[in-house]
Specification:
The complex is a heterodimer of chains A (319) and B (385).
Chain A: H1 2-59, E1 61-66, E2 69-75, H2 78-84, H3 87-120, H4 125-137, H5 140-151, H6 157-164, H7 176-205, H8 208-217, H9 221-249, H10 253-258, H11 270-280, H12 284-310
Helix pairs in contact in A: 1-12, 2-12, 3-7, 3-9, 4-7, 7-9, 8-9, 9-12, 11-12
Chain B: E1 4-12, E2 18-27, E3 32-36, H1 43-51, E4 58-63, E5 66-67, E6 78-81, H2 93-103, H3 108-122, H4 137-151, E7 155-159, H5 167-184, E8 187-192, H6 195-201, E9 204-209, E10 212-217, H7 219-224, H8 229-234, E11 241-248, E12 253-256, E13 259-262, H9 265-270, E14 281-286, E15 291-294, E16 303-313, E17 318-323, H10 335-338, E18 348-352, E19 363-368, E20 374-376
Parallel strand pairs in B: 3-8, 3-9, 6-7, 7-8
Antiparallel strand pairs in B: 1-2, 1-4, 4-5, 9-10, 11-12, 11-14, 12-13, 14-20, 15-19, 16-17, 16-19, 17-18
Classes of the chains: A mainly alpha (319), B alpha+beta (385).
């Protein structure tokens, strides 16, 4: 009996001991992890968090600009009042939202279509993917210059093509609606491959047996796409669209190079507007307010989208 | 309802691999045909060709009188159960079962009635609103069966449908699958690598190896009269013991290593060809149940002395592993799945009465049912004439 009594606590203690050991071990691992990531985190704080905080401070201050720089003189909401009363800001906001929705939608449809074709390629899929990724891998400013050359009013490639087939000389970047459409075409050309590649990756992951079952069940290819492929692809598409929304809301380099935001303000996005107000008009307070409004738009837009898709993401994973 | 007729069917893949050779096989209406063979024997390829998921390189496939070689899967009126069930992960159980009916534009009320009926038969009623991932393996399996059940197809195909289930459930589902097949009453092709499944489920069993059909017959006939030593070794568990032997004395005695079995005249009468092997090597096959223990170490013309290496007590019987000094013949692609890797390659197995007091290391005299011996020529073909 005595032996048993002596033995029992020992037996009970041993699992606790290992747990404590494991805890200290994982704590040590965590410490090492933090130690390694601290420099990177400091760097991120310096180039991202500080500027965001600073522009928030700027947007809520009376900023006076002097020859030596600028100084913050007291708290105010006036920058935001100015924003809300500005038709330029309202247009930039509407333009950015419309542009994002339209381009992302077209990219999604085209990208998925391309992905479906690519997935069916048994030979030469690799080279095709590489070719496809060429526009995506190009720096936006460079591709914008390229499109500038295509759209240019006098010597542009498109211009001469149109007149060669007798369609006259349409204006591409010189008037508001064509300028918006032209810019969207350039954007879609560049970013559709990104969507296509993500969707191909998603397609390849889908189990082939499910499609065979659908074939046996009597589904046509159209039905198979809408009833099987698309629902199963939803999480993948959600990720592609989220990335694209984040990027498109930050639209800056394309209009900066192609149109400078014009004609008038017809292609001025929120990001471009913020840049112009801050660095061309040297109006730091309102400029910062525009930047903050753009940030809010990105956050709200992404959250809304995720909310719509949340039901799908993670829920549709394969059995 | 239709028969499945395969006439000299071949499958050659793009890379030149000849997966199926000149397969001719007929499955009657309502018949449960099992295709069995080691992995890579082409059985799944055959099934996929019947389903239309794989092109037929040459030969004719007919459902009834109709040539279906070039029909799409959806035009063939088949139901198929896949190895991983292939349920639609985003649909509920009810939607999974109803999918094919919906595609046929069947009225909603009728669909609901059929789905409920199938769910009732399969015990899935309370799971109808669940998604596949919320179900256990056995339930998913039943949903896959349910999809086939509501279809009322003219041909029913199953590709190793039980292989992902645990052993106990697999045994239970064997009977359920049989029950459902009988209910459907259509020509059924069932693919498995498990010879027990093949034996217990099939009306007839077709044994395939390296893309060729070796033998097709009822399970009992396959067991009793295998056409060659592969079928002999593949069908039956534990597998048939195959020994290299030498025929002597004009077919009257059989030398296994240093021991001699004296064959009765009845065997030679039934198989006169055996006498031509006098002085030659052949393979003799002894099923584990055709061996029994002799109480004493006495020997005669129908006994083999052996040394016991391992005893597995199964309650109703003993599996006794033993060695004799004759060469045991290993049949390629058979032993890999059944044989314990730790066991000696030269071990035979006897299925003995549990009352026999034996243990590893003992010497034992085994009595052989000579009438039930199997003989195979050096090329592996069975000798029956």
């Amino acid at each position: 009996m005595a032996v048993v009594a002596n033995e029992l606590p020992k037996v009970r203690r041993s699992p606790t001991n290992t747990k404590i050991k494991r805890d200290t071990h994982s704590k040590r691992l965590a410490r090492i992890g933090w130690a390694f990531s601290t420099p990177a985190l400091l760097f991120v704080a310096l180039v991202t968090i500080f500027p965001i905080g600073f522009s928030l401070a700027l947007s809520l201050s009376n900023v006076s600009v002097t020859g030596n720089g600028f100084s913050l003189q007291g708290f105010t909401f006036s920058n935001y009042y100015e924003l809300l009363n500005s038709s330029t800001w309202r247009y930039a906001m509407e333009f950015t939202v419309f542009y994002t929705i339209a381009t992302v939608l077209v990219e999604l449809i085209l990208g998925t279509a391309i992905a479906l074709i690519l997935e069916r390629l048994t030979k030469g899929r690799g080279p095709m993917m590489a070719l496809l990724l060429l526009p995506w891998s190009m720096i936006t400013v460079i591709s914008a210059e390229l499109w500038q050359y295509i759209y240019e009013g006098t010597y542009g490639v498109l211009q001469s093509m149109f007149s060669a087939v007798g369609l006259g000389s349409p204006v591409f970047l010189g008037s508001p609606t064509p300028a918006v459409v032209s810019m969207m075409v350039a954007d879609i050309w560049k970013t559709t491959p990104f969507v296509a590649v993500i969707v191909v990756a998603g397609l390849v992951m889908l189990p082939s047996e499910v499609f065979e079952a659908a074939a046996v069940d009597g589904a046509s290819s159209w039905t198979t796409f809408w009833r099987i492929t698309f629902p199963l692809l939803r999480p993948t598409i959600a990720i592609a669209v989220l990335f694209r929304i984040l990027q498109a809301f930050g639209l800056f380099d394309l209009p900066f190079v192609l149109t400078g935001g014009g004609p008038g303000t017809s292609t001025t996005s929120l990001a471009l507007l913020s840049y112009k107000v801050m660095f061309q008009n040297i109006d730091y307070g309102p400029g910062a307010a525009v930047a903050v409004s753009a940030t809010l738009l990105v956050i709200v837009g992404s959250l809304l989208f995720l909310r719509v898709f949340k039901a799908q993401v993670g829920k549709e994973e394969l059995q | 309802m239709a028969t499945i007729g395969m006439e000299r069917i071949n499958k050659v893949y793009m890379n030149g691999f000849h997966a199926v050779h000149d397969l001719s096989l007929t499955v009657d209406e309502g018949e449960f045909m099992v295709l069995v063979g080691p992995s890579g024997c082409g059985k799944t390829t055959v099934l996929r060709m019947i389903a239309g998921l794989e092109d037929i390189s040459s030969g004719e496939l007919r459902f009834g009188e109709k040539l279906v070689n070039n029909l799409e899967p959806k035009e063939r009126d088949i139901a198929m159960v896949f190895q991983n069930y292939a349920l639609y992960p985003h649909m509920t159980v009810a939607q999974n079962i109803a999918f094919s009916l919906k595609l046929r534009k069947m009225p909603k009320g009728e669909i609901r009635q059929k789905v409920e009926e199938a769910a009732n038969i399969l015990g899935l009623t309370e799971w109808l609103d669940r998604k596949p991932k919320e179900l256990s393996g056995g339930q998913r399996q039943r949903v896959a069966m349910g999809r086939a059940l509501v279809r009322e197809p003219s041909v029913f195909l199953m590709d190793e449908p039980l292989s992902n289930l645990d052993a106990k459930l697999r045994v239970k589902m064997r009977t359920e699958v049989r029950r459902i097949q009988e209910r459907l009453g259509v020509a059924t092709v069932y693919v498995t690598h498990d010879q027990t499944e093949a034996m217990t489920m099939g009306d007839r069993v077709a044994v395939l190896k390296d893309g060729a059909l070796l033998q097709v017959d009822t399970p009992q006939a396959l067991y009793d009269r295998p056409v060659n030593q592969f079928v002999g070794a593949f069908i039956g568990s534990p597998a048939m013991n195959l020994y290299q032997a030498e025929m002597a004395n004009r077919g009257r005695s059989l030398k296994l290593g240093s021991q001699v079995l004296t064959l009765p005249d009845t065997i030679l009468v039934a198989r006169p060809a055996l006498s031509t092997y006098s002085g030659k090597q052949l393979t003799v096959g002894i099923r584990p149940e055709d061996l029994s223990a002799r109480p004493h170490l006495s020997t005669s013309g129908n006994t083999l002395r052996c040394e016991i290496t391992l005893v597995e007590a199964l309650g109703s019987e003993l599996m006794v592993h033993f060695t004799i000094d004759a060469n045991l013949i290993q049949v390629e692609q058979v032993n890999s799945q059944e044989q314990d890797i730790l066991s000696d390659k030269n071990e035979g197995v006897a299925r003995l009465d549990p009352s026999v007091p034996v243990k590893a290391g003992d010497k034992l005299t085994l009595e052989v049912k000579l009438e039930r011996l199997h003989f195979f020529d050096p090329t592996g073909n069975a000798i029956y004439d």
